[in-house]
Amino acid sequence: MNRDELQRIFREPPQILTNRLVLRKMLKTDYKDMYEYACRRDVTEYLLWDPHESEAYTYKYLQYIQSRYRTGEFYDWAVVLRGANKMIGTCGFTRFTLENNSAEIGYVLNPYYWGNGLAPEAVQAILRFGFMQLRMNRIEAKYMEGNNRSRRVMEKVGMQFEGIQRESMHVKDHYVSIGVCSILRREYLEKHR
What angle do CA 136, 142, 144 make, to 5 degrees? Predict the structure, then answer.
């Protein structure tokens, strides 16, 4: 995988179907669904961004994301409930290190849908895409210490805990420690044989 191939793929990210979800490109019309969770402090507590201040702000954000898709430099999908056409979160890649065939994933879900196995279902679809389509060797995910819910998602999809990077990020005016979990291609293939 090289940068040109990656950009070509993500200019029009392919739709991914799971049992209960559709992962598709984010649309400007998703702004109300996104704002429903993006405005909440309990959602953004362990994220790098602050709550969205208004639906107009969310709309502008999604408008900006369209320009990032056009250049093939945005790697996130909307997580949509099948049959309901309701966006309930996002899931995708936050970073690629192509020279090492590795990637980092991230995800966020509307709290109304927490505890139903939807986050692991979305993450599992992204892992499959990363290993089978993009041919990555390693995929990792990071979480802020204290975000045990996110770590459980990582472990449910077969990622292994690697450790804590102590106070390795300065977020929202304080230092936070970051946990890292990962899965390798060979582990993924063994698990899904």
Answer: 175
Specify the pairing of strand 16-17 against strand 21-24: antiparallel
What ranges make up the beta strands (E) of the chain?
Answer: 16-17, 21-24, 76-81, 86-97, 102-109, 138-144, 160-171, 174-184
- At 187, list the tokens: 């582990």
> C-alpha distances in angstroms, 29 versus 11, 22, 26, 57, 87?
18, 16, 8, 13, 10
Give the confidence band of 153 by pLDDT, cuts at 50, 70, 90: very high
Whether the model clears a pTM of 0.70, i.e. scores above it, the answer is: yes
CA 130 to chain centre: 12
- Label the pairing between strands 138-144 and 16-17: unpaired
Is-contact 68 104, C-beta < 8 A? no
CA 142 to chain centre: 11
Token readout for 1 is 């995988």
Helix, strand and coil percent figures for the chain, each rounded to 5: 40, 30, 25
